[in-house]
């Protein structure tokens, strides 16, 4: 499915995906081909994507870029590499990371800086944008201002920042850095394209800052634990989202603690 000139999405109907949007896999068809993320690794998904490659006339690809280690982004990597001969790239800070019982990213090249990949007529700049995960990459098509944002910016809602591998301060810094770039459209790893990137980025930054102020104010009023903060911050939370919400609060509190605004003792927070 062509989403923009020379840019395709390879959609697979995965049914319900955690109640949200299934992972997007994108293909940039310059004089050479690059694929951004690889979706799930089940045979049903892979056979659909192999057929889509065939329909696009793509038998070879130069690069497969994995934005980060989460299963829905990297599980199809081996199969798409076999199908295209592409080299798989990921950021070195994602090396060895995996979630659940999944295997790590099978990268051929671990990047440490921000290289530009040459597709001939188009150039892809890999941008290290940590926050959702330590070595998260966004990909900018330099000639067009198209940003593949991975999970850093989603088509709908806000991304999960887990306290262990996520980092709220880095996430906000990455959003602020994205604001400084010349971006015309964002193609996220989940959900629809974002046609007004600046407005979206500003909204996301504002949302995180407002949440942080809310948490700080609640702690100041004597709401001292994550469990007590949960119903105050998320009054109408669906049960299946409780763990995620706990993680978000944990990430906000970790940032505030690092900045010396709160202190933690035995799982209780207070203003410093
Ligand atoms: Zn993710």
User: Could you name the CATH homologous superfamily of the largest domain?
Assistant: Ribonuclease Z/Hydroxyacylglutathione hydrolase-like
Overall pLDDT confidence: 94
Cofactors, ions and other ligands in the entry: zinc ion
- The beta-strand count equals 14
**Strand order in space, largest sheet:** 1-2-3-4-5-6-7
Structure description:
By secondary structure, the chain is α/β, with parallel strands linked by helices. It folds into two domains: 2-195, Metallo-beta-lactamase, Chain A, CATH 3.60.15; 215-271, Orthogonal Bundle (Arc Repressor Mutant, subunit A), CATH 1.10.10. The protein is 32% helix and 21% strand. It has seven helices and 14 strands. The protein has helices spanning 43-55, 71-74, 77-84, 168-179, 197-220, 226-233, 242-258; strands at 2-4, 7-9, 26-29, 33-36, 63-65, 87-91, 109-111, 116-118, 123-128, 137-141, 146-150, 185-188, 262-265, 268-271. Strands 1-2-3-4-5-6-7 form a seven-stranded mixed beta sheet, covered by helices on one side. The chain has a five-stranded mixed beta sheet with strand order 8-9-10-11-12, with no helix packed on it. The mean pLDDT is 94. The structure holds zinc ion.
List keywords for this structure.
21% strand; Metallo-beta-lactamase, Chain A; 272 residues; alpha/beta; 32% helix; 2 domains; seven-stranded mixed beta sheet; Arc Repressor Mutant, subunit A; binds zinc ion
């Amino acid at each position: 499915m062509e989403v923009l000139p020379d840019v395709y999405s390879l959609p697979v109907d995965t049914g319900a995906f955690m109640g949200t949007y299934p992972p997007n896999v994108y293909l940039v068809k310059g004089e050479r081909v690059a694929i951004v993320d690889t979706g799930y690794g089940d045979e049903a998904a892979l056979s659909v994507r192999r057929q889509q490659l065939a329909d696009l006339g793509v038998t070879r690809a130069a690069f497969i870029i994995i934005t980060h280690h989460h299963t829905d982004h990297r599980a199809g990597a081996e199969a798409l590499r076999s199908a295209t001969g592409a080299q798989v790239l990921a950021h070195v800070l994602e090396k060895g990371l995996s979630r659940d019982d999944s295997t790590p990213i099978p990268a051929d090249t671990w990047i440490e800086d921000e290289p530009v990949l040459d597709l001939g007529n188009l150039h892809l700049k890999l941008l290290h944008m940590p926050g959702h995960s330590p070595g998260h990459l966004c990909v900018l098509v330099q000639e067009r201002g198209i940003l593949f944002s991975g999970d850093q910016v989603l088509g709908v809602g806000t991304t999960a920042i887990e306290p262990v591998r996520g980092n709220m301060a880095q996430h906000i810094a990455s959003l602020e850095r994205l604001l400084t770039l010349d971006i015309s459209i964002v193609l996220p790893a989940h959900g629809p394209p974002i046609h007004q990137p600046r407005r979206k980025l500003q909204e996301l930054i504002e949302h995180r800052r407002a949440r942080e102020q809310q948490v700080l104010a609640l702690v100041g009023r004597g709401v001292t634990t994550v469990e007590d903060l949960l119903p105050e911050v998320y009054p109408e939370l669906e049960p299946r989202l409780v763990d995620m919400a706990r993680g978000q609060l944990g990430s906000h509190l970790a940032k505030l603690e690092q900045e010396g605004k709160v202190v933690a003792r035995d799982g209780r927070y207070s203003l410093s």
